[in-house]
Design the sequence.
């Protein structure tokens, strides 16, 4: 099953790569905002999957499309709350390095 | 039909007073709590008198025998169909008599304590404990079954412990209270084993069953033996061990002299008149069993009693602390009672010893309480326990002097004071049974007269030491109990005990055996005379005699070194050879194991708590790895 | 090679390169801009798949909204000209190991799997169809998730305001 010579697996490879790049970013980045960007990457890669599956495998309905829309909405909500938290943390610690925020360990 | 259900109030009032004074006592003024306690006890005393009056004079007798009445019997613990522990009020001649004794002495002591303890720290606490003790003692004497008796027996021990240790700031009082508690508790172990043995075979705790015909029949026919003695004998001997502990019989007597560290009214109430006769009461309560099932045990009791009475009387002659003299005198007199029980048979004339023992218990409670309260009055005036610091007090303390003299004459057994009658019955019983013990008792009678009058002359006559301030007579609230008890001591002997309290509850006629009575009075007089010669005035004869006796005197003065022997046994042998290794084992092996578990946990957690770093990215890293691992497991391994 | 293929490979290359740059760039504002490029390329992929509405949402919400939000917060909290220090090499290796192994596993899984496409005729997914179905309460209608997501958005908005508000 191909469309214009591109199989479904092409999209899946892209989304997988994006997903794990996001994970890599989440694991190595120190700045909270860059970590948030990594999360956006992860969410985005999932969206690509939904849309690609919908388009290639189930063209008779729009579940994947709607799911992607909902994920976008949730990503927006998550980003707004996360940025509010980051701003609060910045007020408290005067920086947003994730390594400094370990007050709640043991 | 006369209803005795009101007798439950005899128990409820003191326990209520204990709770009231114990919980709210500090809210009251001291004098109010004292008066409250005394009034409560007064009501109890009147109820007891009324119960005694009804029981002995109004209750119809069945076949001429006094009835045994269960005024109350509530199932307290319903453990199983065959094992029930009950609580109640048992009315029979000895329990009624004990009610009278306990409530009378307790009331007198309460009244007296208002004066004696005035201004002491913990006045309310003192009265609360007195009420607790009275409750326990009354509960003990009216116990319907041996288990209830055991419960109250322990309660009595606790209240005794609390009261001996009343001055808990004084190390000696603390040591004495611990000693009393441990020694009696040790003896109670035997008591408990005895109870279990007895109840196992008779299938009952109730006195009505185990001392009734069925119980006697069962115990008599026990064929099991252990070390050559029948199980019944063992059980009764073990029970006697408990009694010996409470009654301070040799060799478990060591706690009683030390218990004199408590306030003097406590000594009068607990360690002279009531608690220490609990052992006698216990043997009397189970007397039919002893008599029929274990005469050997009775013989043991007789010899233990006889030996203790002699032993204590000898020591009493050398002591200088007036309370200790009285303590040893108490030992000696309780020895008398035990001896009387030991030589007694069952029923009618043969039960003379039983009757005599109860009689002596009654009179002894009166005159020994009087002696202790008198001693308290002396101590109150002089602020010392030692007779070296006393002398010539008859001028300063006229009432105390007179009542004390009456008590001394009573204990010496002079006609017609009460001590004469009860002691005479004991001697008569011993005379018919065992000549050796009889002779010992004669000797003890002389010694008793001697040491009591030694005390009397040293304190009230003799040379007057230099007093810091002039001794003065105690207030009326203290002298009224003295006078009341003095009157009781004089006239209690005329009570017709043989008509009221006998082994088979059938009255019988007892007559004074002149062959026994006259020499006993004569010996008493000789004792008094020797004391008079030696101690009326300060003279050198005493010291000469003491020097002449040399080592013997020191040995006696040091109470035959019994305490030291115990110390040696406990400290050197038990502590060092048994307790120390056990403690070591416990500390290092048992605790070590537990500590090891805890230590390993602590170490492990210290090692792994680094994982809980608070670093979000560490967590995320392990989360990712974990997710991959789970994916691998569920996809490839979990087929 | 058709234009479609070229477009696809272009978008794919952009996505992967800019993704990598997003997570490795040492200047935070640049990282945000690279993220923007990634999101735009993703929108391109949606267009490629003929999902215009989805692509529009992606551009408007993601590229327009979220990235702007992120850039604002960067401006609020960071010095723009500040360069990040490189993360420790061991940390990078460990993260790369985790990411690569996960990626390997995923690729292995779906490359071995044969996807079976549906045989039903495709439906139109233009804006009208999406709007109708999104607010429909009938079969395949998405009215309930729509409502739920709007409540979620409201709650998140209120929460964000309360959290970010200066304490009294």
Sequence:
């Amino acid at each position: 099953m191909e469309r214009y010579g591109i199989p479904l697996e092409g999209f899946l490879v892209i989304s997988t790569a994006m997903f794990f790049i996001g994970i890599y970013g989440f694991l190595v980045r120190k700045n909270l905002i860059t970590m948030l960007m990594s999360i956006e990457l992860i969410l985005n890669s999932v969206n690509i999957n939904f849309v690609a599956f919908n388009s290639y495998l189930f063209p008779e309905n729009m579940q994947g499309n709607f799911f992607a829309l909902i994920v976008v909405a949730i990503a927006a909500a998550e980003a707004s709350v996360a940025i509010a938290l980051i701003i609060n943390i910045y007020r408290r610690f005067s920086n947003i390095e994730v390594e400094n925020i370990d007050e709640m360990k043991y | 039909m006369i209803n005795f259900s009101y007798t439950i109030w005899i128990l409820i009032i003191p326990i209520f007073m204990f709770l009231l004074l114990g919980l709210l006592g500090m809210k009251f003024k001291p004098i109010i709590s004292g008066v409250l306690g005394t009034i409560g006890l007064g009501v109890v005393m009147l109820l007891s008198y009324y119960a005694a009056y009804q029981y002995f004079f109004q209750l119809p007798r069945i076949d001429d025998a006094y009835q045994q009445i269960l005024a109350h019997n509530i199932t307290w613990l319903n453990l199983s169909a065959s094992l029930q522990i009950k609580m109640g009020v048992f009315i029979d001649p000895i329990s009624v008599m004990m009610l009278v004794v306990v409530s009378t002495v307790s009331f007198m002591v309460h009244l007296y304590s208002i004066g004696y303890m005035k201004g002491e720290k913990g006045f309310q606490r003192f009265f609360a404990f007195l009420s607790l003790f009275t409750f326990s003692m009354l509960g003990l004497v009216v116990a319907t079954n041996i288990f209830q008796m055991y419960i109250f027996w322990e309660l009595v021990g606790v209240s005794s412990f609390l009261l001996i240790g009343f001055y808990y700031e004084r190390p000696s009082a603390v040591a004495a209270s611990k000693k009393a508690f441990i020694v009696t508790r040790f003896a109670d172990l035997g008591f408990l084993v005895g109870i279990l043995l007895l109840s196992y075979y008779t299938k009952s705790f109730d006195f009505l069953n185990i001392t009734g015909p069925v119980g006697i029949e069962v115990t008599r026919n026990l064929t099991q033996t252990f070390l050559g003695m029948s199980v019944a004998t063992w059980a009764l001997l073990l029970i006697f061990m408990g009694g010996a502990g409470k009654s301070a019989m040799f060799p478990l007597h060591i706690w009683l002299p030390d218990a004199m560290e408590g306030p003097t009214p406590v000594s009068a109430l607990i360690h002279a008149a009531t608690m220490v006769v609990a052992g006698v009461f216990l043997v009397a309560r189970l007397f039919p069993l002893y008599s029929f099932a274990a005469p050997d045990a009775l013989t043991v009791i007789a010899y233990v009693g006889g030996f203790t009475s002699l032993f204590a009387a000898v020591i009493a002659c050398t002591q200088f602390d007036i309370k200790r003299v009285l303590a040893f005198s108490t030992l000696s007199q309780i020895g008398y009672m035990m001896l009387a029980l030991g030589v007694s048979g069952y029923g009618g004339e043969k039960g003379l010893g039983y009757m005599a023992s109860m009689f002596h218990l009654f009179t002894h409670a009166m005159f020994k309480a009087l002696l202790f309260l008198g001693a308290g009055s002396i101590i109150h005036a002089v602020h010392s326990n030692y007779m070296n610091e006393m002398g010539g007090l008859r001028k300063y303390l006229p009432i105390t002097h007179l009542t004390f003299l009456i008590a001394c004459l009573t204990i010496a057994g002079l006609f017609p004071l009460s001590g004469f009658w009860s002691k005479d019955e004991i001697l008569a019983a011993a005379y018919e049974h065992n000549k050796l013990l009889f002779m010992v008792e004669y000797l003890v009678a002389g010694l008793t007269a001697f040491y009591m009058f030694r005390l009397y002359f040293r304190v009230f006559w003799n040379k007057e030491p230099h007093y810091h301030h002039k001794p003065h007579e105690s207030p009326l609230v203290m002298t009224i109990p003295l006078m009341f008890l003095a009157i009781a001591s004089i006239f209690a002997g005329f009570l017709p005990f043989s008509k009221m309290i006998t082994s088979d509850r059938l009255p019988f006629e007892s007559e004074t055996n002149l062959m026994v009575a006259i020499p006993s009075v004569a010996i008493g007089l000789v004792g008094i005379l020797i004391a008079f010669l030696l101690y009326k005035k300060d003279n050198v004869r005493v010291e000469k005699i003491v020097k002449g006796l040399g080592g013997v005197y020191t040995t006696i003065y040091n109470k035959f070194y019994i305490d030291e022997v115990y110390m040696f046994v406990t400290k050197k042998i038990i502590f060092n050879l048994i307790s120390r290794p056990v403690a070591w084992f416990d500390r290092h092996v048992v605790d070590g194991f537990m500590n090891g578990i805890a230590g390993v946990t602590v170490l492990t957690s210290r090692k792994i708590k680094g994982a809980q770093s608070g670093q979000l990215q560490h967590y995320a890293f392990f989360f990712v790895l974990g997710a991959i691992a789970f994916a691998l497991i569920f996809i490839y391994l979990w087929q | 090679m058709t234009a479609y293929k070229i477009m696809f490979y272009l978008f794919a290359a952009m996505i992967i390169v800019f993704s990598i740059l997003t997570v490795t760039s040492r200047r935070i504002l640049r990282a945000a801009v690279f993220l923007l490029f990634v999101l735009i390329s993703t929108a391109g992929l949606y267009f490629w798949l003929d999902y215009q509405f989805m692509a529009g949402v992606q551009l408007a919400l993601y590229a327009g909204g979220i990235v702007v939000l992120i850039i604002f917060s960067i401006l609020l909290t960071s010095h723009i000209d500040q360069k990040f220090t490189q993360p420790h090499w061991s940390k990078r290796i460990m993260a790369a190991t985790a990411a690569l192994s996960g990626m390997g596993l995923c690729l292995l899984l779906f490359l071995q799997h044969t996807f079976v496409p549906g045989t039903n005729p495709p439906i139109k997914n233009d804006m009208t169809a999406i709007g109708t179905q999104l607010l429909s309460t009938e079969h395949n209608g998405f009215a309930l998730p729509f409502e739920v997501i709007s409540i979620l958005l409201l709650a998140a908005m209120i929460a964000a305001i309360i959290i970010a508000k200066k304490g009294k």
Q: What stands out?
A: The longest strand of chain A covers residues 2-3. Chain A has one domain: 2-100.
